């Protein structure tokens, strides 16, 4: 089984491939808590999520919090960080690339959060250490597709 280093390396390859295919500048040397991955030619900041399992579930896992101590304390992560800085939220899987305006997606969440299913990751997902989890909304693509600015065949595939 691949380790954390292999997982990170694989994700970095996908990030680089997406940058090249979309003609975006990849923000190199990101640290934990970075709010965006790319800068478009017009200066727009873009956060991309490679949500490979979404093909099986039909939902996007929109992360907003994480813990490293079994849920005693939670810190903002994912969308909760990006909504203050990024202009676009991009979701990629083997089938589609979807682009969302961050402000419109944030408004949607504020208006609909009571109706959305909230979930927590299981142990060991993405090589998380024991006690390390994330929380997210599971949002069906049938709903998200109505909010998408753009939906195109995915330029990046994980086979």
What fraction of the residues are assigned to beta strands by DSSP? Answer: 25-35%
- CATH class wording: Alpha Beta
Task: Tell me the CATH architecture.
Answer: 3-Layer(aba) Sandwich
Mean pLDDT: 90
Oligomeric state of the chains present here: single chain
How would a crystallographer describe the biggest sheet? 6 strands, mixed
Strand numbers in spatial order across the main sheet: 1-2-3-6-7-10
Q: Tell me the distance between the termini.
A: 16 Å
Q: Please name the CATH topology.
A: PvuII Endonuclease, Chain A
Concise overview:
With 159 residues, the protein is α+β, with helices and mostly antiparallel strands. 28% of the residues lie in helices and 30% in strands. The chain has a single domain (4-153), classed as PvuII Endonuclease, Chain A.
Which helices and strands occur, and which strands form pairs?
Blueprint: H1 4-22, E1 25-26, E2 38-39, E3 45-50, H2 54-57, E4 59-67, E5 75-76, H3 79-82, E6 88-92, E7 96-101, H4 102-112, E8 117-120, E9 133-140, H5 141-147, E10 150-153
Parallel strand pairs: 3-6
Antiparallel strand pairs: 1-2, 2-3, 4-5, 4-9, 6-7, 7-10, 8-9
